[in-house]
Hints:
- The chain is α+β, with helices and mostly antiparallel strands.
- The protein contains five helices and five strands.
- A five-stranded mixed β-sheet has the order 2-1-5-3-4, with helices on one face.
- The structure holds FE2/S2 (inorganic) cluster (2 copies).
Amino acid sequence: MLTLRVNGEAHEVEADGDMPLAYVLRNLLGLKGTKIGCGLEQCGACTVLVDGQAAQSCAAPAATFEGREIVTVEGLSSDPLGRRVQDAFVDAGAAQCGYCTAGLVVAVTALAKDSDAPRDRDGLKSALAPHLCRCGTHPRVLAAAEAVLEDRA
Ligand code: FES
Ligand code: FES
C-alpha cells in the first residue's frame, strides 16, 4: 500500500512500491494525461511536477514519491499559472498528436514558477531540450513558453 499526494489529494493505492509513478498515475488513479513514451527517462512525455519541480515519472519507483506533492497536467487546471500555460499552448497551436504535450505543459509551468529559470529563447530551448516531439511542434512550444514567461521576466 502506498500513500501518494496527487493534485492536492491523498490517495491510498494498492501497488508495489517498485511500480514506476507514471503507471500508478495512469492505471490506478485514472490520470491519463501523463504519457509514457520511452519509459527510459529519455523523452519527457511522463513529466509531472514534484514539489514544484519538473520530474520524469516513467522509471522512478512510486514509493520514492511518498510524502511529496505531485501535480499532473490535470491538476494544473486549478492553478492560475498552470491554466495560463495550458491556454498559451492552445493559443499557439502547440500540439499535433499531443503525445508530448502534457509533459511540455508541465515543464513550462515549472519554468514559469522558477524565478531563476531562463527567459530568453536560447535558454528556453536548452531548458526544454529533454522533451522530444516527433511532430515538430518545438517552434510553437517555444512561442507558448515565451508568451507566458515574458510577463514573468
Ligand atoms: S516516458 Fe518518461 S522520459 Fe520518456
Ligand atoms: S505533438 Fe506529437 S509528439 Fe509532440
